[in-house]
Design brief:
The complex is a heterodimer of chains A (792) and B (223). Chain A contains 23 helices and 22 strands. By secondary structure, chain A is an alpha+beta fold. Chain A folds into four domains: 187 residues, no CATH class; 214 residues, no CATH class; 156 residues, no CATH class; 176 residues, no CATH class. In chain A, a hairpin with a 2-residue loop joins strand 3 and strand 4. The chains are: A alpha+beta (792), B alpha/beta (223). The structure holds adenosine-5'-triphosphate and magnesium ion (MG). The site of magnesium ion (MG) has 4 residues of chain B, from helix 1.
Amino acid sequence: MLRNYFKIAWRNLIKRKVFTTINILGLAIGFSSSVLIYLFISHHLSFDTFHEDSDKIYRVTTEEDMGQIHRLATAPPGFAKVFREEFDYAHKVAKIVRQTNLIIDVPKANGTAKFKQDLSFVEADFFKIFNFPLVDGSHNVDISHPNTALITAQKALELFGQKDVVGETFVLNNDKTIKITGVLKDVPKTTFLNTEIFISFQNVKAIGNFMASESWGGITSNLQCFISLKPKQDIAAIETALLELPKKYRPRAKNKHIYRLQPLSDIHFNTDYGGLSPTFLIIFGVIGFFLISIASINFINISTAQAFYRSKEIGVRKVLGSLKQHLFWQFLVETFLISVLAAIIGIVVTALVLPAFNNLFELELSLKSLFEFKFIAFFSVLLGIVSLLAGSYPGILIARIAPVLALKGKLNAHDTGGAFTRKVLVVTQFSIAIILIVATLVISKQITYAVNGDLGFEKASVVMFDIPPKTKQTTLNTLKARLKNTTGIQDVSSCFGSPGAAENNWGITVKYNNRPENEAFSTTLKAGDIEYLKLFKIPVIAGRSFFNDDKTKEILVNEKFVKNLGLTSVEDVLGKSLQLQGQNTTIVGVFKNFHNQKFTKEIEATIITPHHKWYREIAVKLNYANTKTTLAQIDDIWHETFPNDIFEYRFLDERVAEQYETEQQYLALSKLFSGLAIFIGCLGIYGLILFFINQRIKEIGVRKILGSSIKSILTLFSIDFIKLILIAGVIATPIAWYVMEQWLQGYVYRTQLSWRPFAIAILSTLLLTLVTISYQTIKAAMANPIKSLRTE
Amino acid sequence: MILQLKDLFKWVNSGGQRIFLLNDIDFTVNEGEFISIMGPSGSGKTTLLNVIGMLDNFNEGEYTFLEESVHTLKEKHRAKLYKEYIGFVFQSYHLIDELTVYENIETPLLYKNYKSSERKAMVADMLDRFNIVGKKELFPSQLSGGQQQLVGIARALVSNPKLILADEPTGNLNSTQSEEIMELFKTLNRQGVTIIQVTHSESNAAYGSRTLHLKDGVIVNTH
Ligand SMILES: Nc1ncnc2c1ncn2[C@@H]1O[C@H](COP(=O)(O)OP(=O)(O)OP(=O)(O)O)[C@@H](O)[C@H]1O
Ligand SMILES: [Mg+2]
């Protein structure tokens, strides 16, 4: 019986090629999207699940109370030792210090090769907590002695040109020679850890005494402390015990610390500590569901419409003794066959687009995961559900057809039912499409607003690059002077850091006008020389800019700072003293607020002061002409100044845009998926129109088929579909409005929702539908009527 | 008694007027009968046969099939009756376009859950009997009207029904073929199969044990 079902199903598909193509194409897109989304979500859910007892691993975090609570995924350098020695909770405790852009010299046959690398300084126990084995699978790492290092096989190949590099050496920061004692298996993409070179923690002094110390004086986000707990520990109790530590080790500290334990599984999904928002995955999942639904709706619509074609067959079968369930199953088999074909095409499409998808989300999803049991299970279930959902309703309709009407040929599409349902489903499809289009437009508008809008500072043609550590002031000044004299360069400023560089944020507390207590709000400190304001075109609105570098202790504050002090006039702060980092300075001017951080964050109190010790970057404002030659010249000058370093630069506007990486991903996604949604929707309309025309042609009879009558039929249909899309617009508008309003709430500075994206979404949907319909008109007008009668 | 129609009316309303398609039909069929229904075109023969075959409903009166009142029958039960008792031969053949000759004949057997080997034998027997072995792989659209009619008859007979309802089974056949079919019906009838056929031909009607004359939905006389 089943074989018989398949045989008939196959013949039906072949016979109605156009409808079959529409169904398969739509479902294939749906499947392909679902597979990608599955891969994406499962990639994120699999983060750090490969460690032994990963549920016992925690990261120490610090809540720093500076007026508002700052959450940082770090602990004071002294924390690890104390936790290890004073408590009995931990199995292992290990510190890791992450450092970016360090210079590494690798010996080569002809001299040495220089690389700029991100790396980590780790305590040996790190490898006892985490499952990052050596290439031989063992965990016998040797990294407790000074000047030892581990490296992943991949990195070894990149730096040394071979994987077996045990015993090889490299020079760190033009200083210490480090010996590689082990090669690690490549670190999976699905881990919080993003370094591939590990150097003994004994060497951490090279980048700062503070991080190497056992100090409790402060925290730095470069240092992280991991713990693997002994079995059956009460986290709340441990956190309570940790409350005592600040009292004991930092009794005089003004900013209060609270230490917490963050589960390893939370790291990837906690936005407080730079994790990915789980909402992102949920939205992804919902969109996947939407797409497969839209595709299934197409299928349902076309199938119910087609029940008309099938009615005679159904009638005859009933008279030959078929029960309803026979017919139902027969139709389900047909659906299943279509689904399977669509699934195969969907998987092939997935394989083809995977590289682009990986590129978009900086992933390394591989097709290999398609052979995993988990995926096969997921996909089988998906296939089953889609077949069942898409097939059952038309199946029921078909099974319900009364035989006598069918046999008498008195049946019309109306009798096969589903006309109303069909309308509801079309409205659903287009509501979803309109919502997605609105989302695309609003997200795009907000990103444009945030990236291209007025941030309060100049970011066009500004090039940023790092100053090597321990650079002398004289060297820096000479460099700046040489750059300044280069044609094509307008301004040069040394700073820490540029506006719009939130990743280099330096938050401090200050004491204003000799008040007894530090101010309760956190202040962003920007170090910048006298060119800073000029280069970034930040206007001074009261007082003046500082006269000279470092000579006088002068400082500038922003409007927000004045507001936070509770003062109304910006003039009030001029000449007043400000204590910061143990220094006394005088406020000489107030500058206009600028957006240092993303638009999700409120503008903070900010101060700018010249201090050469704090400079880490150079900003260069280029004239518009000949960027390339100018950059080459900067490169030359740089190498003459720092022969042992590597020159890498970034444009400031790129840096600002990078803050919106997640938003850009949202945008790319909503563009792609709204495009697909509207495409599948139009495909469905195309199918329905084609069906209605064929049916009408049959009704009218051969002689009356003239171009003009088809035109009038199509006009009728156009009006029908325009009505449906308008209804969809009415339904989608409040939903999209609500959702996008919610999304915009995440931004302190945001565009206003206007009627425009809604109008654009509805009109473009209408337009596309009309194009689809008129394409059909043209085709029908040109087609040979007799022929169109035969091929149904 | 296999079925009985009592004071049965069927009508349609058209333009405020009630048009009777079947008018006060009283009609009993006993097991083993071979009945011919005759009458001019449009007199309601197909309608009557459809009502008897439970393809169509009626408006008034009573219809009992194998001791059961038809209008209380559930569809499921009806399907069971089709499956177990009734073979239909339609005036307009009603072959399934998507199936070959072989598959069309095989379909009722599928619903009767015959084993594959049994089906093969039974279909082969039919193909043989109707001399259409050479056509078994063809689709209905590739056959002449007469050939289609033969396939329709073969399909109705293949599952050995106890009651055959045939609507002008030989309308498209030549006289030799027509006679062969009638002989076949006669043989089946002798083996105990009840047959009700609609026909325009007196000679075909003569094969039956009694003939029913229909005019404007009314039974005018029986003999
Ligand atoms: N659903 C219906 N609505 C209106 N009239 C109908 C309907 N079904 C049948 N009729 C009419 O009932 C009459 C009887 O039709 P029926 O098909 O039974 O005739 P027939 O005796 O089989 O004729 P023929 O010999 O041509 O096959 C016809 O006039 C037909 O038009
Ligand atoms: Mg008739």
